[in-house]
C-alpha cells in the first residue's frame, strides 16, 4: 500500500491496516557525502589557484624545522613548569618570600642571649626579680617575680616592673648599627606566655638629646597555656611614649633607624611570671595598608 492511498483511509482503518510504521515516515534521502571530506572548503582567494592537495600532502617534512619546533615547545614547557616558582622581577619565589619576611632575633644557643639585658625595680630599691636563660627548646625564657610594693625610701610612690631589652648593635669603630625595616610594615613574634599583658618598646635613633627616652610602644597580650602564639603587630599601631607617658604629638614609627626592642611587664599583678620567645622578626603584610592608626588634631587651630 502506497503512502498516498494510506493517507485517504478513515482513522480506524488506517490504524488497523498499518503493519509497518515506516510507511508513515517520509522517505528521506541519505545525505550526500562529498568526495573530498578531508579537504578544506572550496573557498579560494582571488588571484590564487585552488590547491586540491590532501592535508597530509601539504606537510613540509623538514628535519631542521622539526628540531626548532621541538626546542620551541620544550622551552614553553619549561617556562610552564617553572612559572609557579618565579616571583616578581624574575626572582625565585623562595628568594622573594624571604625578602618579605626577615628574622631579626632568634635564640638557638647561649651566645644568642648575650645580646640582651634584663632589669627590674630591684635596682632602685624594689622587690621584683627577673631572670633570663635559654629554654629547653632553644628559646629565650624570661621569668621572675613581680612585686609592686614601693621601696621604703619616703620618695618612691609606685614600683613593680620587669623588662628585657636588646643591646645596641655596634659596627666597626664602635659606631651605632641601625636596623632598616623600611621595606616591612609588621612586627612578627612567636611567643608563649602565661596570660599577662606586656608592653613592646622600640627605640629609634633620635636627633636631639632630650628625645633619648622616647620609645614607640604597643601592647602584647599573651594567651597563656602550652601552645605557641604567633603575633603580628603593624608598625602603624605603635605610639610615642616618654618615660611611660604618652606624647601629645604623635607620628609614625621611623623604620629606617631602629636601635633596640624591649619587653616590659608592669600590670601590678604580683606573683611569678614567664615569657618564652622563639623569634622576633618583621614581615610585609600586603593586606595592611594603614599608614598611622591615630588621628591627630591641632590643639589651637586658627579660625
From TrEMBL:
UniProtKB keywords: Chaperone, Mitochondrion, Ubiquinone
Subcellular location: Mitochondrion
First-listed, main subcellular location of the protein, grouped into a coarse class: mitochondrion
Occurrences of domain NADH:ubiquinone oxidoreductase intermediate-associated protein (ranges): 105-277
GO CC annotations on file: mitochondrion
InterPro entries: Galactose-bd-like_sf, NADH-UbQ_OxRdtase-assoc_prot30, NDUFAF1
Entry GO MF terms: unfolded protein binding
Source domain of life: Eukaryota
GO biological process: mitochondrial electron transport, NADH to ubiquinone; mitochondrial respiratory chain complex I assembly
Subunit structure, as described in the record: Part of the mitochondrial complex I assembly/MCIA complex that comprises at least the core subunits TMEM126B, NDUFAF1, ECSIT and ACAD9 and complement subunits such as COA1 and TMEM186. Interacts with ECSIT. Interacts with ACAD9. At early stages of complex I assembly, it is found in intermediate subcomplexes that contain different subunits including NDUFB6, NDUFA6, NDUFA9, NDUFS3, NDUFS7, ND1, ND2 and ND3. Interacts with TMEM70 and TMEM242.
Its biological purpose: As part of the MCIA complex, involved in the assembly of the mitochondrial complex I.
PANTHER family: COMPLEX I INTERMEDIATE-ASSOCIATED PROTEIN 30 (PTHR13194), COMPLEX I INTERMEDIATE-ASSOCIATED PROTEIN 30, MITOCHONDRIAL (PTHR13194:SF18)
UniProt similarity note: Belongs to the CIA30 family.
Protein name, UniProt field: Complex I intermediate-associated protein 30, mitochondrial
Species of the source: Nothobranchius kadleci (African annual killifish)
Amino acid at each position: 500500500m502506497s503512502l498516498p492511498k494510506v493517507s485517504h483511509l478513515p482513522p480506524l482503518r488506517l490504524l488497523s491496516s498499518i503493519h509497518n510504521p515506516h510507511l508513515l515516515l517520509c522517505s528521506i534521502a541519505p545525505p550526500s557525502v562529498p568526495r573530498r571530506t578531508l579537504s578544506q572548503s572550496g573557498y579560494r582567494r582571488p588571484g590564487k589557484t585552488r590547491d586540491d592537495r590532501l592535508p597530509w600532502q601539504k606537510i613540509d617534512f623538514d628535519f631542521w624545522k622539526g628540531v626548532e619546533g621541538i626546542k620551541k615547545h620544550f622551552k614553553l614547557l619549561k617556562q610552564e613548569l617553572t612559572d609557579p616558582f618565579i616571583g616578581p622581577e624574575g626572582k625565585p619565589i623562595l628568594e622573594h618570600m624571604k625578602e618579605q619576611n626577615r628574622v631579626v632575633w632568634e635564640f638557638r644557643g647561649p651566645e644568642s642571649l648575650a645580646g640582651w639585658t634584663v632589669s627590674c625595680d630591684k635596682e632602685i630599691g624594689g622587690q621584683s626579680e627577673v631572670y633570663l636563660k635559654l629554654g629547653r627548646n632553644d628559646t629565650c625564657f624570661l621569668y621572675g617575680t613581680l612585686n609592686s610594693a614601693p621601696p621604703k625610701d619616703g620618695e618612691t610612690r609606685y614600683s613593680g616592673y620587669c623588662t628585657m631589652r636588646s643591646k645596641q648593635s655596634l659596627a666597626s669603630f664602635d659606631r651605632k648599627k641601625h636596623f632598616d625595616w623600611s621595606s616591612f610594615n609588621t612586627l612578627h613574634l612567636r611567643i608563649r606566655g602565661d596570660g599577662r599583658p606586656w608592653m613592646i618598646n622600640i627605640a629609634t635613633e633620635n636627633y636631639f638629646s632630650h628625645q633619648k627616652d622616647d620609645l614607640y610602644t604597643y601592647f602584647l597580650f599573651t594567651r597563656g597555656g602550652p601552645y605557641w602564639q604567633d603575633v603580628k603587630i603593624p608598625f602603624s599601631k605603635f605610639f610615642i611614649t616618654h618615660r611611660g607617658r604618652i606624647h601629645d604629638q604623635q607620628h609614625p614609627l621611623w623604620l629606617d633607624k631602629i636601635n633596640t626592642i624591649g619587653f616590659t611587664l608592669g600590670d601590678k599583678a604580683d606573683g611569678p611570671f614567664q615569657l618564652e620567645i622563639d623569634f622576633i622578626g618583621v614581615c610585609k603584610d600586603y593586606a595592611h595598608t594603614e599608614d598611622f592608626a591615630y588621628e591627630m588634631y591641632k590643639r589651637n587651630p586658627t579660625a
